[in-house]
């Protein structure tokens, strides 16, 4: 009796373990190579979106007026951001400032209209929350929004931080169909609200993703992830920029007209490095237990478990010259989609696939040194320049029988992710 089992992997170690465990085919998930897939960055401009994406963000929360806590963006902003970045973009639904999150019937109509329009303009998900005057979840409005944007995921934003009972309200949020909760634990910063965030994590039991937010930086991210056990987190990574050319005394509002805030590539990259080291302790030289039960001091860039190189675009990125942050005055020449960037990425992924196949062959006792190059990667027909090509990496098939005896092997184009 024969069987065929496919296993999804994102590292050499996972591939070898899957092969030893009886996998007949491996699917290499390239998204896991580029980043750990856990850092969401909130942005309110195209410049910030591009810098966040280059810095290693796995998802964007798009809004306007971050100084007011974030408001609903325009369809035009969403379309331009989507054309400049190649990661999911979640859209904020919040028609006005204020921390009450209690909306009038007219405001509810605005939110529903915005949700429908932004869904048509390519939003990958939404961020929303509404409460009643008594401090409870507005179940009617929340349910309507979830249904309007379905099947797109919806995050319940920091309205959870002003409800009377966060843990009890979480049950209602789960029942309404939300997929994530964005929270600071009821405090001004996530670090100050660690206890409540941890309680939400424990009570959720994996039914919904808890995303710590507010005041997270490269210094406190490690303790926040360690204490809460969170698998995702939310940052802004903003820095102030002075507008030197504006010498007018005319004021356009109550804020500082001479300063704008933009997400910094450097700040996001530093946070992303902490994130990567949290996922893979080998990169920071910690002692880890290998497959023989021995504890070794591993060096950054190496995986002592099987003495294989750790292939990580972000780990290698620190050794390369980093792209500069985009300044608002240079936006037209800096944010256009780069074919060269996509080409370089495909080369890295092709090399990764080749080395992964070699390692699997070596562990299985084979000495074949076949190499696969760029032909492993093909562009999906009809792919436009504004959207990156889907990557078809290799599939390693091991023909096995019920008694575990290996048969022939075939390496060919893999499955799309």
From TrEMBL:
Q: Which InterPro entries match?
A: CutC-like, CutC-like_dom_sf
The UniProt entry's coiled-coil ranges are: none
GO molecular function (one): copper ion binding
Residue ranges, compositional bias (Polar residues):
293-302
Q: Which domain of life is it from?
A: Eukaryota
Q: Where is this region: Disordered?
A: 287-338, 367-388
Pfam families linked: CutC
* Compositionally biased residues, Basic and acidic residues: 315-324, 367-378
- HAMAP family xrefs: CutC
The UniProt entry's sequence similarity note says: Belongs to the CutC family.
Q: What is this protein called?
A: Copper homeostasis protein cutC homolog
């Amino acid at each position: 009796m024969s069987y065929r089992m496919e296993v999804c992997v994102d590292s050499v170690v996972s591939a070898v373990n899957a092969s030893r465990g009886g996998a007949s085919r491996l699917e290499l998930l390239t998204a896991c190579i580029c980043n750990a897939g856990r850092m969401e960055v909130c942005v309110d401009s195209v410049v910030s979106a591009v810098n966040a994406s280059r810095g290693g963000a796995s998802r964007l929360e798009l809004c306007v007026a971050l100084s007011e806590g974030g408001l609903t963006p325009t369809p035009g902003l969403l379309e331009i951001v989507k054309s400049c970045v190649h990661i999911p973009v979640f859209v904020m639904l919040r028609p006005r400032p204020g921390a009450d999150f209690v909306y009038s019937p007219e405001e509810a109509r605005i939110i529903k209209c915005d949700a429908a329009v932004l869904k048509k303009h390519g939003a990958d998900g939404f961020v929303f929350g509404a409460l009643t005057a008594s401090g409870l979840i507005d179940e009617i409005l929340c349910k309507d929004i979830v249904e309007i944007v379905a099947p797109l995921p919806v995050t319940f934003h920091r309205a959870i931080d002003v409800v009377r009972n966060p843990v009890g309200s979480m049950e209602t949020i789960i029942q309404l169909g939300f997929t994530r909760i964005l929270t600071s634990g009821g405090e001004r910063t996530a670090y100050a609200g660690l206890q409540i965030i941890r309680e939400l994590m424990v009570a959720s039991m994996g039914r919904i993703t808890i995303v710590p937010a507010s005041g997270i930086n490269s210094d406190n991210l490690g303790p926040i992830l360690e204490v809460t056990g969170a698998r995702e987190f939310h940052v802004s990574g903003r820095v102030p920029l002075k507008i030197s050319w504006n010498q007018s005394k005319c004021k356009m509002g109550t804020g500082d007209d001479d300063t704008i805030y933009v997400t910094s590539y450097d700040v996001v990259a530093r946070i992303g490095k902490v994130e990567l080291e949290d996922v893979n302790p080998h990169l920071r030289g910690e002692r880890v237990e290998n497959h023989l039960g021995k504890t070794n001091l591993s060096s950054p860039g190496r995986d002592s478990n099987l003495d294989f190189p750790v292939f990580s675009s972000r780990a290698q990125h620190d050794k390369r010259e980093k792209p500069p942050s985009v300044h608002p005055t240079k936006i037209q020449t800096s944010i256009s989609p780069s074919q060269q960037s996509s080409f370089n990425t495909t080369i890295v992924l092709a090399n990764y696939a080749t080395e992964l196949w070699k390692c699997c062959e070596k562990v299985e006792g084979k000495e074949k040194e076949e190499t696969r190059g760029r032909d492993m990667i093909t562009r999906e027909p009809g792919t436009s320049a504004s959207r990156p090509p889907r990557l078809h990496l290799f599939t390693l098939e091991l023909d096995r029988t019920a008694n575990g005896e290996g048969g022939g092997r075939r390496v060919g184009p893999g499955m799309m992710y």
